[in-house]
Amino acid sequence: MAAALLLMGTAASGQAQQAPAAGEPLKLETVVVSANRRIEKLEDVPQSITVLGEEYMQRNNVREFNDIVNLTPALSISVGTQVGTNSINMRGIGTTSNNLGIEGDIAVIIDDLPYAQPQQAFKDQADVARVEVLKGPQSTMFGKSAIAGAVVMTTKPIGAGPMKTNVSLFRSSDDEYRATAALSGRLSDDVAMRLFASKTNFPGLLNNLTTGRKQNGSGGKSFVTKFLWKVNSDVDVMVTPQYDHSLSTGNTAAITSIDPGVGYLYNKAYTALSNTEVLRGITPSPTNRDIRNDSPSGLESTNRGVGVRVNYQFPERTPLAGHALTSISSVVKNLSNDFRDNDNIDLVSTFYQLNHAGKPSGINAKAEINGTSDSKTSTQEFRLTSPDEGQLRYLVGLWFARNSLFRTYYRGNPFVKETNFTNYETSSSNLNRALYANGSWEFASRNTLTAGVRLNRESNNYMFHTIDSLSSSAPNNIHTGENMYVAPQHDENGITGKLAYTYHFTPDVMAYGSAATGRKGVAYDMTSGANNVNVFKRLPLAAETADSFELGFKANLWNNRATFNAAAFRTRFHDYQTSATERFSDGSQASVLYSIPALQTKGFEADTTVLLTRELQLNASLAFTRATILNWTQGPCYSGATDCTVPNALVPGAFLRDASGGGMPNAPKWKLSTGAEYRLPQGMLPFRTAFNVQWRTQSRVQGAISQDPSLNRPGYGIVDLGASMSDDKGKYKLSVGVKNVADHHYASGNVGSFLNFKKTSGPDIKSLGWQPARDAFRYFTVRLDAAF
């Protein structure tokens, strides 16, 4: 039984490990984490954590956040119609609204710099050395955006010796390329630096027959700099400026099937928009990759930031000898432009759609969406950390953060009602002040209590300016006209905490039980729904809260040749923030912010790494998750639903369905990632040779919180193979790989209805589409790394 458990698990310690070289002791490397804001061994921290190490990520060609998700069973991604509204899920819980006024449920932090918006994480992550996936509420240590968990990334450190250069070149058979270079080392005894630059590009999987270009690709360029100055034996200063520019042309769907017959888009009178003309040259099939768009879709984003870390080590013979006082300051600015081909065709649909007189508009304007998001995050943290030795270890900190977001959005045409025209600008800002503390007390031999608390005060400001709008449902083609709303400042206090008990059976084997709470701040509406002035009566939306319980076991076995970690958990979320449609007393209706009373996620996670021989290492990572809606009697109806019998509390005379007991979207019940690496014994060849295999699989997922079965996606299993050769001195390394060996095609999102065409008589002609995942088709890779 124990052997079986060791071969089934998740990726916490295992995936960060690497096999020892010849002549070194036969044991796994020690894995350390910073979950408690101090460096500790993984097996000493009483919570479920997945760690991805540098070599493991390199072996699996990790470049973007989606690659991290593929290797971490607890994580998933919800894909929307626009890249900027993609969300990260932890244990099946994440934001299901496209409203930027709702914060993400998962915090993403890189080198102590937090991202203000989840979209900032979807970029090149080439210089990352370690990824820690902290599961369950992390609000006590990482703030209000970590109600469901946190992903903490650490970039590669400055080299300890003289200046050295590393260069990496990557190419794939489907035209992806990556080029990176790093210069790192000491300039003097007291000054060191690291310079990193990268340029990447993947054209995409879809073929746009209209433009001849690819779609659903990504690329960018990054520059990361680290300067370390050791002022004296007690003080050191680290300055980390960084810049990146990324372009993602994702979230476009391609048609996979269509009903027989001839129909017309939007209206049977629009004969120029027949399905034969709209889809000319495209053959619908389950693996179709051809589209026709006359406008691009995607997200272009620029990040600029700088962090300053000052560390003071209290000298001996002082009252705080052995303590460290750390100041961390940061400023991060992000400017993003999201754009979309709103009709998903290459014909100018606006030309044929009706104007206010009920006749074709004749306006030759493409159906496009354009939005901008301009955000700034400024943080200041002071942290006092006790020595690592002793029965009592603690940390106290002060946290200040100011976040601001300015959003503009333009959709449709003001003279064509069917385009659902809107033009608005909105802003939201918050100021957070927090006092937090965390400590571990070994009150008896083998027994440890860990506790933490965070006191937070948040002040929010909000503005919404409707420049003009014309809803597709507006009676008599009446424009809303201009309106400005400025909300009064909202102040709110919050408290979160955590408590854990650990029992060490031996120094290498422990069990723990823990409880934690989480809190996410109030939300404001930053979508076109707020063009309806009735929406402001519901703002701000109440804070979202969570409480969690976890039981875990961690073991370092077989003289440090095997690790095994397991955890069972249950987390409940209250007042989960999302959106719903409301009809107001004046007869108008709009999308409004809305709270689902209760959600729950529960399950089991396990992970293992086994060094069977000096040459062969195995790792596995498993998650069983049941993320469900506990209480939502006012769930939305979907097309074809037969149980819409619950009176709508927001829209008199309308009906909804009881969605209680439904599953959360993009939350697979089972997800497994497992792999092996075999290194040929030294001496068989004049260079070091290794072979690796990785298999990941997951069960089917619910596609939307509405529970619409047409949006469900089936499970899949993907096998990757790789091999590498390097010289004895580690200066050169050549790696080759095959991704998706079996060429198994699967979608990452946007399945279900594609375009509907109206027939002159009879039912509509319906079509379905898909958005293929990055590795939905087999491809080959080659990579060259050089150090000199």
**Which class in CATH terms?**
Mainly Beta
Global structural class: mainly beta
Straight-line distance between termini: 48 Å
CATH topology, by name, is Maltoporin, Chain A
Describe what this molecule looks like in 3D.
- With 788 residues, the chain is mainly beta.
- It has a single domain, classed as Beta Barrel (Maltoporin, Chain A).
- The chain has a 22-stranded antiparallel barrel.
- It is a multi-pass membrane protein.
- It is found in: Cell outer membrane.
- Belongs to the TonB-dependent receptor family.
Tags for this model:
6 helices, mainly beta, Maltoporin, Chain A, single chain, globular, 788 residues, disordered N terminus, 5-stranded mixed beta sheet
Concise synopsis of the structure shown:
It comes from Pseudoduganella aquatica. With 788 residues, the chain is mainly beta. The protein contains six helices and 41 strands.
Helix/strand layout:
Layout: H1 2-6, E1 32-33, E2 40-41, E3 49-53, H2 54-59, H3 65-70, E4 75-78, E5 87-90, E6 106-110, E7 113-114, E8 128-135, H4 139-142, E9 149-155, E10 164-172, E11 177-186, E12 191-202, E13 206-208, E14 214-215, E15 218-230, E16 235-248, E17 254-258, E18 264-265, H5 275-278, E19 290-291, E20 298-313, E21 324-341, H6 349-352, E22 368-385, E23 392-411, E24 421-444, E25 447-470, E26 483-486, E27 490-506, E28 509-520, E29 544-557, E30 562-583, E31 589-611, E32 616-631, E33 646-647, E34 655-656, E35 670-679, E36 688-698, E37 716-726, E38 732-739, E39 747-758, E40 765-772, E41 779-787
Parallel strand pairs: 6-9, 13-19
Antiparallel strand pairs: 1-2, 3-8, 4-5, 6-7, 8-9, 10-11, 10-41, 11-12, 12-15, 13-14, 15-16, 16-20, 17-40, 18-39, 20-21, 21-22, 22-23, 23-24, 24-25, 25-26, 25-27, 27-28, 28-29, 29-30, 30-31, 31-32, 32-35, 33-34, 35-36, 36-37, 37-38, 38-41, 39-40
